[in-house]
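Z., the sequence and structure:
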Amino acid sequence: MASCLVAGDRLVRALGSGGELEPEQLPRKLRAELEAALGKKHKGGDGPSGPARLVSFRLIRDLHQYLREKDSTLYLHELLEGSEIYIPEVVKPPRNPELVARLEKIKIHLANEEYKRITRNVTCQDSRHGGILGDLGKQVRSVKALIITIFNFIVTVAAAFVCTYLGSQYVFTEMASRVLAALIVASVVGLAELYVMVRAMEGEFGEI
């Protein structure tokens, strides 16, 4: 934070012998402090014209207050012509090696965690993709088995009907009796096949 200013040539000349402040009869203490401040060279505040002369804001306020009390025709802003606020250079403290090492470890740890998170998501996506394909294959096989079972059911019932119809000619002479006997036998065979088919389908769907 700025607490002083770099005195310009106007303030230095005014405070010197025969300067503008000489008729104002400054208090001895105030003049001594101003002369001491202007006479001290500060290497840290070097400017284009050489080492800076730093005057604290407190001295500037005291000078301003004195000029106002004396009803002086000399104004402070005229004396400060060419002066600049001095902002000291901020010196960065050296970094703690232990703290730097800990920060590096934390960065490496966070990078590893991020890498694991990314690779875990990729692995899960691949597994999920493979699982979907596997489920699709099971479903296709189940549908294929169901179609074959239905086809076998139809063929078995039809064969039972035909065989009964043809074989009943030696027992029944009328067409209606032969058809009725064939339907009864085909129905019994169909129910038995349907029972076996349902049990088989329950087992296959349970494995999915």
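The chain has six helices and five strands. Helices lie at 9-15, 28-39, 57-69, 76-79, 97-167, 175-207.

Let me know what you think.
H.
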